[in-house]
Amino acid sequence: MSLFDDIINNLPEVKSPTQKRLSFKEKLKWTLIVLVLFFIMGFIPLFGMGQNALSQFEFMSVILGAEFGSIISLGIGPIVTASIVLQLLNGSGIFKFDLTTHEGKKRFQGIQKLLAFFFVLFEGCIYVFMGGLAPTAVGDPLSTGMVMTSALYFKVELLLVFQLFLGGLLIMYMDEVISKWGFGSGISLFIAAGVSKTLFIRLFSWIPATGVSGTGSFSYSTGAVLALFQALGQNDPVTAGLKIAGIIATIVVIIMSVYAQSMKIEIPLSFGRIRGHGIRWPLKFLYTSNIPVILVAALIANLQLWATLLEKWGRPLLGTVSGEGSGFIKWITVPGGQEGLVGEILKNTVSVTHIGQAGGYLLLMVVGCVIFSWFWMQTAGMDSRSQAKQMMASGLQIPGFRKDPRVLERLLDRYIGPLTVMGGIAIGILAAVADLSGALANGTGILLTVMIIFNLYEEIAKQHMMDMNPMMRKFME
């Protein structure tokens, strides 16, 4: 086991800052640098790629923080997949980590990084060798005038895998830079950046998309706002209704996300050595925040990608994605695509199958969020025992009770367990309803982005309100 520990301890990593507390300007600088690099990398195409079978799955790329066909086609997929696998192994007891000690946490993080390396290479090979991101077909002429031979085709495949591996590593270490030098985490930042870009395009883009109006064929703008006025001008109530429904659903998702995020329970605690002074320790209703939704959404996106690749490979083990779909993957997919179940209702094309798909998707989101919420509570040091130790270390205790961590732990048990389960159910329902309502830029993505920005605001306001620019401070207040 010592050799394995040596490998974990010697994995390349981003150096942590030497100072205990970074300034607001320093964190803002590194966050913006990584964000700009992320957008630039999204515009760098894979050299040698001839076929991009994944380009149609834009909603998956939003959740995975990826740009299919670019050097960051893998996005945060390998990182999140590694986290899911390790949490399931730890939660089921197959591999148990003592996360209460520094060594246990270090080993857990090291194995997670090692798994992420593996999944970067593994997913890169899967994307290429199963035809998702493939070179020009054998026998077709290249831009250089040469004809693609079998030997050259294999070499180009290896080149594509190398580029995907390189992009995956860059995403991993950019995430680590954000975690140590910036605000929040890179995973959250990349999701929020991708969703924000997609939402802006879906709202205001003037690029035409073919549609059919009441008077015949007509090219509407991609942006919902412009398309709404165009549909009204073309006397097309169906398209206008779809655009209005998408805009309203987006606004409702944002409002509900902010409201759910602000709900909390406050536990009164006192300072043992200072009589008459105390605080109220807040426990959020969404106790594990947006982490369960990220994990479940990434899991569903990975399943859909696998189903697509397996179907293209001629082995539709998870079912088919093309056409109306079939098999397991059909029943965990949002009916109606981007327009959701609401779109099917407005177009008067809703069926029992669509309702069944909606039910299956809702069930998977709720159950998945509860499971991952519980696992995350245990692995992230958010359980009652860890919280009780943290409170005791701060000199806090329950008013009227002796200073004993077991007493505090029993009190927290009455709140943390139910909050973890109820919060998981609530956020699962909210995410599923957001997708089924046809919100723009993917309902789950909007939900995640609102929660990420809300958490980011709280972190900045808590840690850096005093050292930021006066104008920025006034804006934050």
Strand order, main sheet: write it out.
6-5-7
Q: Using the alpha-carbon principal axes, give the shape.
A: globular
Relative helix content: 55-70%
| Average pLDDT over all residues | 81
Query: What's the helix-strand series?
Result: HHEHHHEHHEEHHEEHHHHEHHH
The CATH class name of the largest domain reads: Mainly Alpha
CATH superfamily of the largest domain: SecY subunit domain
Outline the structure in words:
- The protein is mainly alpha-helical.
- It folds into two domains: 1-182, SecY subunit domain (Preprotein translocase SecY subunit), CATH 1.10.3370.10; 252-477, Preprotein translocase SecY subunit, CATH 1.10.3370.10.
- It contains 16 helices and seven strands.
- Strand 5 and strand 6 form a beta hairpin.
- Residues 211-216 have low confidence and may be disordered.
SSE topology sketch:
Blueprint: H1 2-9, H2 24-41, E1 51-52, H3 58-64, H4 77-92, H5 102-129, E2 133-134, H6 150-181, H7 186-204, E3 208-213, E4 216-221, H8 224-233, H9 237-262, E5 264-271, E6 278-284, H10 291-313, H11 340-346, H12 352-379, H13 384-393, E7 396-397, H14 405-436, H15 443-464, H16 470-476
